[in-house]
Each structure stands twice: as C-alpha cells, then as structure tokens.
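Sequence, please.
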C-alpha cells in the first residue's frame, strides 16, 4: 500500500511539473486595441498625450464620448480594469438600454470564457488626466484619458460677492463658469447689467480666464452707489450659444443656471458712525445711571452693615463684662473651696494621728495583758506538770519555760 501511494504521488508531481513548464510556452501576451468612434488611437499609452474625450453633456455615453478598448487574451482568462478620473462601462447607450453619465464603475473584471477578447469602454466627466489600467496574466498596460473642455458649453454661472460694502467703494464680484459636471470653462464672455441706480461697473463684459490662477473665472469691478441702499447686478452670457439650452435642459442633469445675480447691501458709513456714536452715548448714560444706583445701594448696604456691626460689638462687650464678673465669682468660689480643702485635710490628718496613737496604745495594752495571761498559764501548767511527774515518775512531762 505504501509503495502504491508513493507511485501515485510521483505521477501527480510529474503531471504538475509538466503543466507548470507547459503554461508559459502556450500563454499569449495580452494586446489591446484602442479607438474613439472608429478611429484608432495610438497615443493614449503615454501620459504626455492622453486620449482627448468629449464630455458627455447630453447625458448619453455614445461612441463619440467613450474610448473603446478591445483586449485580446488567452481563452478562459479574465481581464481586470481599474480607472481613476474616468468611468468604465461594458456597452454604449441605446434607446432601449440607456447608458448615462451616472452609469459604470471605476473597476471591472471581464471573463473571456471560450472567447479570446474582452471589450469595454471608458468615458470621463473631468478635465483632469485619468488613467486606465488593464491587466491579464501578469501583463499590465496603462492608458491615459482627459476630458476636452474646448467644445463644452457653459451650464452654470456662479457668483461670489461681498454681502455689503461702504457707499462709493469699489468691490470685486467673481463669476465662475462651469459645465454640467463642474469643470471650469475658459475664454467665454460674461456680461454684467446693473439694475436702477445700483452703482457702476468698470467694464460690463469680462472674459473667463484661461491661466491656472484665473481659469474659468471672470472678475468684475463694481463701484457701489452713494444714494441707494443696495446694488443689484445680473450676469449672463454675452453670446447665448456659449451656454446650454435652458428651454429644454438635458434630462438627468442639474438645472442650468445662466442668469445669476449679485446683491450687495450698501452701507452709509456716516449714518452708521452717527448711530454708533448715539448708541455709545446712550450706553454711557445708562452705565452712569447704573453706577449711581449701585453707589446708592452700596452706601445703604454699608450703613446697614455698620449698624449691625455696632450692635454686635455692644452685645459682645456686654458678654465680655459678664464673663469677667463670672470669672471673679468663680475664682472666689475656687479660693473658698481650696481653704475648705486645707481645713478638711488638717482635720483628717489629726483624726488619723489620733486613731494611730489609740491603736498603738490599745495594741500595747493588749500585748501586756496577753503576756501576763501566758505567764499565768505557764505557771499553772508547770505546777500541774510537777505534781504529775511526782505521781508518775515513769511518764514525766517537760515543763514550759
């Protein structure tokens, strides 16, 4: 059995090694064909010459908007695609299967199954350079795309202006032109129109910039009026065809804004200063009144505090006098008690001495009586003993000394 297992393992190992050796020999290196609306593109593989794509301002991803990629690979393999600043779709727009500017994703994996090609499309909504990275079996190819702003129409005019300004001063109002996807649009003329006596513009027409600092923006210089409370300026495209159709806007995209306005409140600095001065004076008067009231209240409070303090001091002084008198009385009582204690001690000492003397005399008398009684007893005993000894010479008893 062990020999059979060894043979089986050897066969499997040999088959595996044969597969590993054979795979590289048969693997085809992926090739990718790129075209835009049927015209081959040979420059997109360089970041310096990205494929220029129209922006899908009609909200339909058609052949004219999307770069087509056809990757040729081995049967049964998969093609992985990732995109930055661009979007991947697997089909183009049709009336029955719409593909819009919100369709697609930034990554996609296409399994070829029994075929040898993977087809997908890439579109962009930004003028920033985007990348498309295509990978199959260790081969990775990178392509570059960029949205073309030159043929894009303005979809939105946005206004930035100060909320207010002093009468007669010059203010800057900035108008930014963007397409339907928020890309700034350069080299387009914008016209400003002031309503009523709302001030004056240095120039009524300004072209959006094309440099890095001013790209897609137009600055208007507005001198605020001196006899009005506000300045109202409307902005619009100098050439209407530079903007999108506002009558029938594109479905699925934001509503166009091509006639915004700026409203700036005009400040009368002299009137504001006078009002501020009056307010300051009123505030000072109010503070003076408050101070007088506070001073009066403080004086009243001080008088009340002083009276309370005097009352408290008188009560404290009286309590101190009484305490002193009580102390004198207490001291006299203590002296009396001390004297009585001395007398009591003398009496106690005499009584003790008398008792000791009496006890001593009594003890001496008792001892004398006891000694006499003992002597008498001895004498009587010896008398009896002598009489006994005479009668009983064989059983004599000793005499007591």
């Amino acid at each position: 059995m062990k020999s059979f297992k060894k043979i089986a393992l050897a066969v499997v190992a040999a088959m595996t090694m044969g597969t590993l050796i054979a795979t590289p020999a048969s693997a085809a290196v992926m090739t990718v064909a790129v075209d835009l609306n049927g015209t081959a593109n040979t420059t997109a593989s360089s970041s310096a010459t990205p494929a220029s794509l129209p922006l899908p301002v009609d909200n339909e991803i058609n052949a004219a908007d999307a770069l087509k990629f056809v990757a040729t690979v081995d049967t049964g393999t998969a093609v992985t695609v990732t995109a930055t600043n661009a979007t991947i779709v697997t089909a183009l727009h049709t009336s029955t299967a719409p593909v819009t500017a919100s369709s697609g994703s930034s990554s996609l994996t296409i399994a070829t199954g029994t075929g040898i090609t993977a087809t997908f499309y890439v579109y962009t909504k930004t003028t920033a350079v985007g990348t498309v990275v295509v990978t199959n079996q260790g081969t990775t190819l990178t392509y570059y795309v960029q949205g073309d702003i030159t043929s894009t129409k303005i979809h939105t005019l946005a206004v930035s202006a100060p909320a207010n300004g002093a009468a007669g001063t010059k203010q800057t109002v900035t108008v930014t032109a963007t397409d339907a996807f928020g890309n700034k649009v350069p080299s387009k003329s914008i016209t400003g129109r002031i309503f009523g006596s709302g001030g004056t513009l240095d120039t009524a027409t300004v072209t959006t910039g094309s440099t890095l600092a001013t790209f897609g923006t137009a600055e208007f210089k507005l001198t605020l009026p001196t006899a009005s409370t506000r300045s109202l300026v409307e902005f619009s495209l100098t050439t209407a065809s530079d903007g999108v159709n506002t009558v029938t806007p594109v479905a699925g995209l934001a509503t166009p804004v091509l006639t915004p306005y700026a409203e700036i409140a005009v400040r009368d600095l002299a009137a504001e200063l006078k009002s501020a001065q009056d307010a300051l004076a009123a505030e000072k008067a109010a503070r003076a009144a408050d101070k007088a009231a506070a001073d009066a209240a403080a004086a009243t409070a001080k008088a009340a505090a002083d009276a309370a303090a005097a009352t408290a001091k008188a009560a404290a002084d009286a309590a101190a006098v009484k305490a002193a008198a009580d102390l004198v009385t207490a001291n006299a009582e203590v002296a009396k008690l001390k004297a009585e204690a001395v007398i009591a001690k003398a009496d106690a000492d005499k009584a003790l001495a008398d008792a000791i003397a009496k006890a001593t005399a009594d003890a001496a008398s008792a001892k004398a009586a006891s000694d006499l009684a003992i002597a008498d007893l001895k004498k009587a005993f010896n008398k009896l003993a002598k009489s006994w000894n005479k009668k009983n010479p064989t059983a004599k008893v000793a005499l007591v000394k």
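DSSP finds two helices and 19 strands in the chain.
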